[in-house]
Known about the structure:
The protein is an alpha+beta fold. Among the domains are: 1-64; 163-231; 321-461, PH-domain like, CATH 2.30.29. It has helices spanning 8-29, 38-64, 102-106, 130-141, 143-146, 158-167, 174-189, 192-204, 209-232, 272-276, 306-316, 331-339, 343-355, 362-380, 418-423, 447-458; strands at 3-4, 66-70, 73-78, 84-89, 93-100, 109-116, 123-129, 151-155, 236-239, 243-248, 253-259, 263-270, 279-286, 299-305, 327-328, 382-386, 389-395, 399-405, 409-415, 425-432, 438-446. The strands form 4 sheets. Strands 7-6-5-11-10-9-8 form a 7-stranded antiparallel sheet. A 7-stranded antiparallel sheet has the order 14-13-12-18-17-16-15. A hairpin with a 4-residue loop joins strand 10 (243-248) and strand 11 (253-259). Helix 1 (8-29) packs antiparallel against helix 2 and helix 12 (331-339) runs antiparallel to helix 14. The protein is globular, with a radius of gyration of 28 Å. The model is unreliable at 289-296 (pLDDT under 50).
Amino acid sequence: MKKRLHPVRIVISIIHLVKNAVFPALFLFVFHQAAEAAWVIWARYAFFAYILVTICGSIFTWWTLRYEFRGHALYLYTGIFVKSQRRVPLERIQNAHRHTPFVHKLFRVTALSLETGGDEASVKLDTLTVKEADRIEERLKGKEAAQETKAFHFKVTGRELFKASFTSFSFFAIIPLLGSVYFTIDDFFELGGLARETAAYIKAALWLLIPISLILFLLGAAVGIVMTYLRYGSFEIMSDDERIYLKKGILNETFFTITKEKVQAVKWKQPLLKRLFKLVEVELISAGDTGEEELETNSLFPFLPAREAARIVEELLPAYRIEPCMEKLPRTALWVKLIRPSWVWIVATAALLWWQPAYWYGSPVLLVLLMAGRWLEFKQARYLVNGAFLQIKSGILSTELLVTPREKIQEIEVKESWLQRRWRVATIQIANRARPVHYSQLADVPVGTAALFYQWYAGRK
Length: 461
């Protein structure tokens, strides 16, 4: 039986239209209310035409878009004069995302995105009742899977959200927020003179900078904590025998499922600030992708406690074993990295000597920084073949650790430059299935290790 989306989709479309039309309306009917220029009059006509066409388009889109489950496939129907039909086999639907923005919560509806493999676009049913979304997910999982009990692996605490608010730099959001408020008020009350007088007064009394800076820091920290709480509050990681479930958000709720067998690799990301707070971001490299950045579908949680990350991954994916002890690069790899030409330094030095020769000392300073970065890259690099699993760690200030099983690696490549051949080292690169394809590489491993790695991969089933 063919079904339409919930009719509240039209209302939500109009709400988004009003939100996007606020500033054009202010510009045309408030700031230029007395203007009689021809372009202003025609712009107002175009504005009303745009509103009318958009509302009619929302109604026609809702009326023509229908879906149904028939057999082992999902069918989508669209179009009035030119009708189209799309058939999506259920076995091609790999993951499901349930995203409930605040406006959807007001009308008790949700948006369901179904992730497909290959180059096909994902299927998005953006206004479903919660009951209908549950029915579709149960249809995709099967009745037996739907009745499985979910195991809890992680639930975010207030302490972790507090640390996350500082490592995410969300407190810097106060800067554009204050700027936006200032310019908005200035458009109506002309605060330019008052701002200059205030700046001159503070400059004359420098002691005021300390309390003002403290207030701004506390205000920014409070904004960061609130934003982090609204975005990641109630975060939970759950699983059953076949799937992983992620839930997050207070105002905008997101519920994401991923089939365990579709996980191609696991990646640990740890920038410098997260290392100081002993936090880590764990990403799942999946075979599909919705292309919707706000869902962050591949991230378990950006601020997992480092001491619990390995435990959680091994509980979710029992086949994965993360070994902390890994092989280091040989000393020759350091020399190769240090003597390898740096085009950044060459171009920057040439530009500096041509336009600003008085600042020639910037060239050796840049060279020292680049060499220090290469030394850190050498110190961070690690690798390990652990049975049927490969571990690769790389990075400078921010480190990444990739763990992937041999059967999930789509292809490998062993490369040698002229310099690497002279020092008997090579670069190995692997590709995992994802959208886009996920590449990982480790430079300057011994040639013998690269050959063994090639043989290891050739033994895959």
